[in-house]
Amino acid sequence: MIPMRLSEIAQVLGADLSDVRHPEALVTAPSAVDSRDVVPGGLFVATVGARVDGHDYAAKAVADGAVAVLASRPVGVPALVVPDVQPALGLLARYMLGHISPAVIGLTGSVGKTTTKDLLAQVLERHAPTIATDKSFNNEIGLPLTVLRADATTRYLVLEMGAGRKGDLTYLTELAPPRVGVVLNVGAAHVVRMGGGLADVAAAKGELVEALPTDGFALLNADDPYVVGMVGRTRAQVTLYGRSAGAHVRAADVRMHDGARPSFELVTPSGRARVELDLIGEHQVSNALAAAAVATTLGLSADEVADGLNAARRRSAGRLEILERPDGVTIVNDAYNANPESMRAGLRTLTALAGARRSMAVLGAMGQQGDTSRTRHAQVGRLVAELGINVLIAVGSGDPVAMAQEAQSANLGVTVHLAEDVAGAVRLAAGLLEPGDVVLVKASSEIGLGACAHELARA
Fold first, then answer.
1. In CATH terms, are 100-311 and 321-458 the same topology?
2. pLDDT in tens, the chain (459 residues)
3. Which residues are CB-neighbours of 116 under 8 A, at least 6 positions away?
4. Is 396 marked as a binding-site residue?
5. 252 alpha-carbon distance from chain centroid
6. 112 appears as a binding residue in the annotation
């Protein structure tokens, strides 16, 4: 963050200074919404959630080094008091961004955002100072926090932009106007909130490319018809990436290697280079191509992009995270979130990784699927059977039961079990596991199956 005095921040936000003895005190470090993440010289942002009120942790945050608290009421320690913390945080980020000049890259899509963001950051940071979204902090709170980590030395600002509803991306792009925008795909994540159909999801995701300036760049997935349909919604120069022959940045000679790790020939307008990813799953090719399209647009050569991708490692937990046990059991923790597209990718990755080993899928519900939820869960169950996965444990009541029933009715040899909850899934899976098995654990984040993956890894 560029250093700012409390008095200056108060003027920008129209905030009242409460319990502030030194208005000229400098804020020099990033902000945090979790008091455990406070660093000396930063701001503590007191947000109010469903279960936790950040104002209750204000004193601890200041004791741990926060210069002040951004709050909606006095808290007994130095504070900048505003009517609403969330828009104030966004306003501060927008103000600060106006005083530095990084290349702002916005990235959205139904699946793959975090992995693509992590890949891109690892490519770019080899060449210039780069700030990227931490974990999946991609909303109206997380994005400003990311912006406030940047300073005058930052050349690339990589912002993962999430959208749960129409209008979300318009708001985020107003806070941090991107010059480069990437749309990965359109899928059924948040389909209910966005209107009920994939066309509604596309309308929401396309807000990113609509926000790009005439001298900007829109990077669109050539393999997704909904994304290609956004070409007419942007004033920016369009680059298509993907496995399609007509893509400007594309993959040729895609191969799958031991451990389900893909490789491909990266083809760009300026050259070609071989990419061998350390990530698992063939779907990672598309994520890598999106990162490559951005890096190429920013002037990196094909060799520089390939070197960065080849050196990249998984950074975010809960996304095809490999956990190995001493008895040879491999746990694949992909329980950060789930929707039909990521379920399909995860199950295909499980079968590729398992090979001749016995495979087990521990699956919970996919949220936000609306009236089609039961059908979509049944389709997942059918895919489990068709892929030849040996064991399915469906966790929870309702839709997971439909998943189990469909897998069973396919009569293709999968052994199906039901678990009432996460604890039941742990007990059931632990009793069924044999040395050498490969297990995929996946569900929407609110199900909490990540705990199951870690318990099984410790068993």
1. no
2. 899 999 999 999 999 999 999 999 999 999 999 999 999 999 999 999 888 999 999 999 999 999 999 999 999 999 999 999 999 999 999 999 999 999 999 999 999 999 999 999 999 999 999 999 998 899 999 999 999 999 999 999 999 999 989 999 999 999 999 999 999 999 887 777 777 789 999 999 999 999 999 999 999 999 999 999 999 999 999 999 999 999 999 999 999 999 999 999 999 999 999 999 999 999 999 999 999 999 999 999 999 999 999 999 999 888 999 999 999 999 999 999 999 999 999 999 999 999 999 999 999 999 988 888 999 999 999 999 999 999 999 999 999 999 999 999 999 999 999 999 999 999 999 999 999 999 999 999 999 999 999 999 997
3. 107, 109, 182, 184, 287, 288, 290, 291
4. no
5. 26
6. yes
114 is in an annotated binding site: yes
Q: Which fold has domain 321-458?
A: Protein-Tyrosine Phosphatase; Chain A (3.90.190)
d(CA 305, CA 266): 9
Q: What is the CATH number of domain 100-311?
A: 3.40.1190.10
Other beta carbons less than 10 A from residue 232's beta carbon: 8
C-alpha distances in angstroms, 212 versus 163, 179, 233, 431, 454?
Answer: 17, 6, 10, 54, 42
- 110 annotated ligand binder: yes
Does the annotation list 115 as a binding residue?
Answer: yes
CATH architecture of 4-83: 3-Layer(aba) Sandwich (3.40)
Q: Which two tokens stand for residue 169?
A: 């991306």
Residue 368 to residue 347: CA distance in whole angstroms: 20
Domain ranges of the chain: 4-83, 100-311, 321-458
* Residues whose CB falls within 8 Å of the CB of residue 291, separated by 6 or more in sequence, listed in order: 116, 119, 120, 123, 305, 309
Q: Which of 115, 98, 201, 220 is nearest to 158 (CA)?
A: 115
113 carries a ligand binding annotation: yes
Check: CB of residue 219 under 8 Å from CB of residue 256: no
User: Bridge partners of 321?
Assistant: 333
